[in-house]
Each structure stands twice: as C-alpha cells, then as structure tokens.
Amino acid sequence: MGTAESFELPSLQKLQSVEQLDLLDVVDTLRARGLSDLVALPQLIVCGDQSSGKSSVLEAISGIPFPRQETLCTRFATEVILRRAAMTEIKISIHPGNDRSTLERDELLGFHHELKSTNDFEQLFKSATAAMGLSSGIKSFSNDVLRIEFSGPSQPPLTLVDLPGLIHSAIGQQTSQDVTLVHNLVSTYLESPRSIILAVVSAKSDASNQIILSRAKEVDGHGLRTLGIITKPDTLERGSASEQEYIALASNEKVKFSLGWHVVRNLDMEKEKNQLGMRDTRETLFFKESNFSSLPPHTVGIAFLRTRLSKVLFDQIRTELPKLVEDITTKIVAINLTQSKLGPSRATVDEQRSFLTSLSESFQRICGDAVRGHYEDRFFQVDTDPERRLCACIINKHFEFADNIRKKGSYWKIQDNEAQETERTKVATDECCTGLRQTREEAIQAACTLLKHSRGRELPGLPNPLLVGELFRQYSRPWSRLAQCHIRNVWDTAVKFLELLLKYLTDDDTCEKILKFWLIPIMEEKLKLAYRKLDELLEVHQDYPLTTNIHFIKNSQKPRLDHVKVELERRIKEEIAGSQTVSIQDISRIMSAMESTSSLKMDLMAAEEALDNMNSFYEVALNLFTDNVPTLAIQAPIIKGLSKEFAPTAVFSMDLDIIKKIAGEDEGKTLEREALARRLEILQNGARICKQYEKRPQTC
Predict the structure, then answer these.
(1) Terminal-to-terminal C-alpha distance of the chain
(2) Exposure string (b/e) for 245-278, b if CB count within 10 Å is 16 or more?
(3) pLDDT in tens, 192-231
(4) Given this model, what pLDDT does residue 482 score?
(5) Alpha carbons 562 and 560: distance in angstroms, whole number
(6) Which backbone phi and psi does 200 adopt, to 5 degrees?
(7) Using CA atoms, how far apart are residues 316 and 307, in angstroms rounded to an integer?
(8) Are 355 and 362 a contacting pair, CB within 8 Å?
(9) According to DSSP H, which parts of 175-256 are helical?
C-alpha cells in the first residue's frame, strides 16, 4: 500500500468524458463492493501474440510503464483498477491462481509493495515476478494476477488488463504446458461477455499468422466488443505489398470488426529509449508523412484511440447494464434458494429438531401428492426427471411388468409346426421370445415323459393329480426372476424420488445424511418385506393347483376340442380328395378310426389332458399374479405410507444421536452460510446501485 500524491496519469484523464462519468462510477462502485468476483463487469483487456507491442499500447493509453522487450515480456495478468475517491491511495496485491496450494495462496496474499512514483513500476513487476516463483527459471508463466488499485479524486473509474502474449508453439524455455496455460488464461478474459477486447496485431508479422485474430473471432464472432489495433506500422517498407495489406486491414476490409481498427506507432525501445517525451509527436509526424495518411484521421494515433475507447467503453457499459442487472437478480435468486435449503443456523438439539420438523412437513406434503398422483406443486414442474411424478412412473412400470411377464413368463412356448419353422428364423433377434419353443405334439410328448416319471396308482389314461402342479411349476419358472427385477426396479425409483425431493427441499449434505441415517435403512427394510411377500405369492404354487375361477374349465377343454376339430377336418379332406361329397357313413368311419387311434395312446391322452389343464390354470394364475405383485408385494410394503417415513411424527421419534448426525452443523457449514450471506449482501448492494442509476436522468 502507498500514497498516490505523486502519481499523475494524464493519459487516463483523456479516456473519460463528462457524459460517462456517472456510468463509470456505477461500475466502479460495483467493483469496489466486490461484485467483480461474482459477475462479469466491463473492462478493457489488451491481448495479442508475443512481442506484438500490446504492453506499449497499454502504456500509451494509461501512462503506466509496463515492462517491455522484444522477447519474453508479460508473464502474468496485470489488472490496473482505477477508481475515484476522496483520499489518494494505492493498493498492490496478488490474486493467487486456482492451481496454488493453501500455503502458496497465503504467501501470495501477503505480498505488498510500495509505489511512490512511476519509476517504481519496474521494481514492482520484478518483485511480483519473484513472488510468483518466475525468477528461478522453472516456470515461465503464472495464473496469478497482479492487481494495482489506484484511488484518488482525479482517477477515471475503469479497469485495464494486460495479458501475456499468445504463444504459437513450445520453443526453447517455453513448454507445451506454458502454451496451454497462457491460452487458458487469455481465454478466461476474452470470454467475459462484458470485456472490451483490444486485439493487438504487429505489422512486423503476417496478420493471418497471429493467433489473437482467430481467438477474438471465436469469442466475439461479430466483433461487437473487439477493436483491432495495428502496431509497428513504421517497420513496413513504404509502398510494399505488406504495407498495402495492413492499410486494407486497418480499413476493416480483411478482418472485419464492428468496432473497426486503429493504428498506433509506438517508440522503438532500442533506438528511441531516451525519447519517451516525444512519443506522441513522432507518431503524429509518421501518420502525416506515411501512406497510412490515407486512413481516416480518427483511426490512427494514440490520441484518437483514447477518444474511441472512451465512446466504446461508454456504449459497452450502457448496453450491458440491463444484462448486468439481470445477472445480479439471477444470482440473488440462486443464493436465496441455497440459503433456504441450508435452513437456519442450528447449534442446539432443539434447533436441529425444529429444522427437521419444518423440513419433514414439506416432505410429507409433496411426497403424499406424488404417491396419490397430484402434481400441482412446483417440485413436479421444475425438472424432467420421470421419478418426480412417482405415481405415474410406478404405474407405468406395473404395466411394463405385466407385458413383460406375458411375453417372457413361460419357460417354453407352444406353437404349431409352420409357426415354429418361421420362428426359428427370427428367434435370435426377437427379444420377446425367450425360453424353449415346442409344437403341441412335442409338449404333449414331454408331458407324457413326466407322467411316466411320476406315475402312481391312477387308472390307465388318467394323469396323476399332482402332474398339473409339476408342469405349472416348470412352465412358470421365470416368474420369480421377473417379479424380483420389477420389485427392485420400483424400489430404485422410489429411492431416486426421495433423493430428488430432499435435494429440492434442502442442501446436498443434509439430503445425504437424511438418506444415509434414516430413509435408506427404512427403505431397505421395505425391500426385504416386499421380497418376503413375493415369496408368499410364489409359495402357494408349490402345492396342488387351486382355483375357483369359472374360466378354468372352459379354457382347459378348448384346446382338446380345437385339436379334435382340426384332426377331423384333416381326415375329411383326405377322404373326399377328388370327390365333392362325403356321406354320413364316411364320417362315422372316420370317427371310429380316430377313437381307435386314441385308445392306443392312453398315456398321451392323459398327458394331453394334464397339459391343457396346466395351460388353463397358467392363464388364471398369471392374471392373478400380475395383479398381486404390484398391489401386495410393491404398493403395500414399499409405496404405501412412504410420506410418513419422514413426517413430523417420525422426527419426534428420532433418537438424539440421529438428530445430531443429520441436522448438526460442522464448521464448514457455518462458513458456507456466512459466505453466502456476504455474497448476497454484495449482490443486493449491486442491485440497489444499478437501480439508483436507472432513476437518474439520462443524456441522449
């Protein structure tokens, strides 16, 4: 820190106009209140390739002697913050980069240097370079930012930023890491929507090869906030093609920016080092005598550049102010929401229980709405997560389960011979057709084998009464797996819903603790209960099949009748082949033949009857199972009463230890709440300042 009494920066006085003072004061006040750390504020940034003369431009604009040389110059960002104040003061600080350790940050934050005159700047930059660890040669560039704040009654309120030059490639001591670091650092400033970009291009190199032009176009495609600046025009051979190229560029013909181009002639530090006082005079003479005199006068020379920047800066601030107010308002809303989720400070158990009780009231109300399918609350509107609408999501999953078990619930599928041949060609790609595939005859034969294996004392031609149950248990083998998957799927959905709801109502830390110490253990017990209920639903089928459904008899007889009909039609067609009529005697003879054939296959008849009875019972049991699993194994143990699991009554029953684990606050939470309060105060002050400016009479 130091005094600014001996500092006179006349160049900067020319950057301000009477019209823009009030508006610049608004931005400066916002910056002084710390708003620049929260939202982007208007500023002038000077950037270009290495050795493009940008530091010389910035010195000419501001009068501040930035370090310059033909090789490696600027090695870190330097922010010159000027503000009007009754007292003259200078503050020097280093803002550590994000890559610094805690110890390094503390050391850099403790950096100080005293400035008494402009001659002290050279030593300031050397001290800052050493503090950032750039003097040892291990590092060439730094993410740290040197901040020089000038306060005084005559200072124009604005911010200027000098950035390291963009590097084309890793050469010599400049590594690939240096190239990446510089590009990322410059991009951070370029991408700020309220920064005015002064894109500096050196006439000593081909403009098309200078990276800054492409980078400026990337972040500001229409050039609305980019002003191109050409330096070192005196190095071009008079009348040469290169000179004509740069005159065309300065005329905004080659690379077009809405703000246009400007040409300045800086001093040659090797030949004119001792002629600093003659800088503006020599520049004026050059533009009077060179071919650059063909350009409009207001686009050449440092004096006109200051005038252009004054207008550009004013227009940029005036244009961005409404957007700035919008950004501030958005951030205020976000912080208010975060504070609401954090809840009040809670050091005692009573405060912690009160916090959880208030939170549980909202939880119970919204959770109850979700279970019942009432979606009026804002929670159901703010996001597209399907789990938020819990009832709809679960009902849809129940329908998917019913459809899935009808397609994949049978261990084998029965189809006719023609269908089986067709099915074999697509079975590899049909996801719905899983399990074995058999014709009816093959299924009957398999049932006959099982009949012989389980034969008891039943009469010939009659199946063992237990055969239907054994066939059913084989046929319905996939039920258990499919139902378990469905239960787990619904349970995961419910847990996801709980997480979404808690994150909506409170901060992530409290949400995680409520889930970990309270709700997840409860939900795991619900899952176990659901699985036990499923076991009960499956256990009934381990016994002899039992049903009172009248459709069982009808469905069990239909396959046999259909088979007899098909067989009869087949034999009649064979009998009347070549003839148009068939007699009653022919039909009697066919029927007798069919009876004779059947009498010779008593085991197959018994197996067929058992198979048909099993298929009929399967349809009856399947319909009942697809209803029972959702209602008895899911809705009852998992979904019903979900809103009561974290209701005020549940909070009242919590042990003190659980309450402390969930609602207790560590030092980090306290610091977070304090930081939010500080940020909110800064933003609210910024909003108030902007509104005060809006009420002032505006100059047209």
Answers:
(1) 40
(2) bbbebbebebbebebbbbbbbbbeeeeeeeeeee
(3) 887 889 999 999 888 888 889 988 888 888 888 899 999 9
(4) 94
(5) 5
(6) -90, 130
(7) 14
(8) no
(9) 176-190, 211-219, 241-250
Backbone phi and psi for residue 488, each to the nearest 5 degrees, phi listed first: -65, -40
Q: Quote the DSSP letter at residue 458.
A: P
Superfamily (CATH H level) for 10-328: P-loop containing nucleotide triphosphate hydrolases (3.40.50.300)
The CA distances from residue 138 to 78, 142, 406, 431, in Å, are: 21, 11, 70, 62
Residue spans of the domains in the chain: they are 10-328, 353-663
pLDDT tens string 354-401: 989 999 999 999 999 999 999 999 999 877 788 999 999 999 999 999
**Complete edge-to-edge strand list for the sheet that includes strand 77-84:** 89-95, 145-152, 77-84, 158-162, 43-48, 195-202, 226-231, 261-263
The letter for the amino acid at 173 is Q
Number of H helices, E strands in the chain: 24, 10
HEC string of 23-49 equals HHHHHHHHHHCCHHHCCCCCEEEEEEE
Which of 31-40, 141-150, 257-266, 309-318 shows the lowest per-residue confidence on average (mean pLDDT)? 31-40
Report the candidate in 111, 152, 116 with the shortest Cα–Cα distance to residue 128. 111
d(CA 503, CA 36): 29
**SS3 state at 682:** helix
Q: Can you tell me the distance from the alpha carbon of 420 to that of 431, in angstroms, rounded to the nearest whole number?
A: 16
pTM of the model: 0.55
Contact 529, 635 (CB under 8 A): no
Question: Which run of H or E residues covers position 436?
Answer: strand 436-438
Q: How far is CA 54 from CA 10, 27, 228, 307, 691, in A?
A: 19, 25, 11, 18, 37
Residue 67 three-state SS:
coil
pLDDT at 159 over 50: yes
Its sign, for the CA torsion 127, 129, 131, 133, is: negative
pLDDT of 121 > 50? The answer is: yes
DSSP notation for 303-360 = HHHHHHHHHHHHHHHHHHHHHHHHHHHHHHHHHHHHHHHH-S---SHHHHHHHHHHHH
- Give the model confidence (pLDDT) of 490-526 as tens digits: 999 999 999 999 999 988 888 999 999 999 999 999 9
Separation between Cα atoms, residue 116 and residue 218, nearest integer Å? 41
Residue 87 has a pLDDT of 77
Of 444 and 180, which is predicted with more confidence?
180
| pLDDT at residue 297 greater than cutoff 60 | yes
How far apart, in whole angstroms, are the C-alpha atoms of residue 607 and residue 609?
A: 5
pLDDT of 345 above 50: yes
Measured CA to CA, the distance from residue 485 to residue 481 in angstroms comes to: 6
The whole-angstrom separation of Cα 207 and Cα 257 is 14
